[in-house]
From TrEMBL:
Gene3D superfamilies linked: Impact, N-terminal domain
Domain Impact N-terminal: 22-129
Domain of life assignment: Bacteria
A Gene Ontology term for the protein's cellular component: cytoplasm
UniProt cross-references to InterPro entries, sorted A to Z: Impact, Impact_N, Impact_N_sf, Ribosomal_Su5_D2-typ_SF
Any one Gene Ontology BP term: regulation of translational initiation
Family: Belongs to the IMPACT family.
Name this protein carries in UniProt: YigZ family protein
Amino acid sequence: MKVKDTYKTIKSPSEEVLFKDKNSKFFGYAFPVTSEAAIKQHLETLKAQHHSARHWCYAYQLGKIEKSIQFRANDDGEPNNSAGMPIYGQIQSFDVTDILIVVVRYFGGVKLGVSGLINAYKSAAQLALENSEIITKTINVPYLITFEYKDMNKVMRLIKEKNLKIVDQKLELTCEITISVRLKQAEKTYNSFNSIYGVEIRELTL
């Protein structure tokens, strides 16, 4: 089975975009995020910035591999599934993750109906994504390698051979090196270090 070890996200926050329908204004924003705390922070900032708006609807998705994906869609007072899910639909359509999209609505005095709302929130989210730079990143597994100083050459040779990225190192009598390995190479790399006498390797949880 082929291991998927890349994912798409956005490089930086998008420019503000605007979609209008019957005097209602829908401002769209996309942010790269990796935690719920960051999501909360962006929402608070936008609520302060658009304090006279009527609705702050959003959707987000966190996680790189299927089993760890978390997502949420919020209608923020709009009719059920008329705002959050159309925004989330665009996240799925562009196949991006670690992302928050917020659409801020100023009511223009004319009701749009559910189908009008769905179209407006979807369009604002789509514009925000089209105005973002989408990048592909690799999914990496962090490992901590522990060994005695005398085994340094063996470990370093293997790191060089496999062209592994060192994230952190503490080289004393007992040495610790943290490496980052692409998911598809993770098992093989683990086995290589695990087979060296006196060297311990374990996966770190982020």
